[in-house]
Amino acid sequence: MGLRVNFYCKEKYKDRVPEPVESSKLFPKWFSNLPLNDAKYFADGSIYNLKLNGEGNNIKKCLGITDFLNTGYLIPSWTDFVFREEENGDLYVNWVENYFEEINYTPHDESQYSTMPNKPIYGHYGKVETPWVIKTDPGVSCLLTHPVWHNNKSFTTSTVVFHTDKSPLNIPWFFEWNYKIQTKMNVDNIDLSNQVISKGEPLILIIPFYRKKYSSNINYVSDKDFENMCMAQKNLTRNTPFSKCPYVKFKQNLGKMFY
Known about the structure:
Strand content: 25-35%
Largest sheet: 5 strands, antiparallel
Distance between the termini: 12 Å
Helix content: 10-25%
Shape: globular
Number of helices: 5
Order of helices and strands: EEHEEHEEEEEEEEEHEEHH
Number of strands: 15
């Protein structure tokens, strides 16, 4: 039996807020709609010399990206958040569905990270506690980070690690807003794609991991040994038109890690 990740929410919000979901069930729409490009052969200098053109492949065939998109759990927004700018230059946040009466937007201003370069554009990080508490089996911690491949550039969720086996965590959405809002408080021309975080949109990616000690070695090798390792990577992690690479077979045997 695998390790257990438990999510908790108040009973009164059942069927009213989107539940945490495995990342594999909420792929970015743009990624799912991306067509696969066919592999093509081409003549290399001579009609008798053929090579396989892999340059036409898009990132849908990138094993690292697809494995990342299958990793962990997503916390969706439980309401529509609308971001505007007050006349004094402060960031203002509305949440549309007021049934979640405990909702609270807490700014964490620059005094808490005074030596940080490239501070948030509005001078603070925002924090909103989600309706969810998470707790994990012994030995399992959680990385909370931005759902980067969902490609929302309006905000960036901060990355933290919490040891959710030692203490339950009321999952925070801790983030910075990434651009100045030119329309101020005007409600007639709100940019829905940039000023609104819609209900159901991924806010946080949670990746549970088993705590173990690590050690590392730094190795310097010959050009030949380095090139051999790079060639091994190429051979082990790419399909041919007629067979699947060993790495893909390993992934299939590995099965689904998060469910």
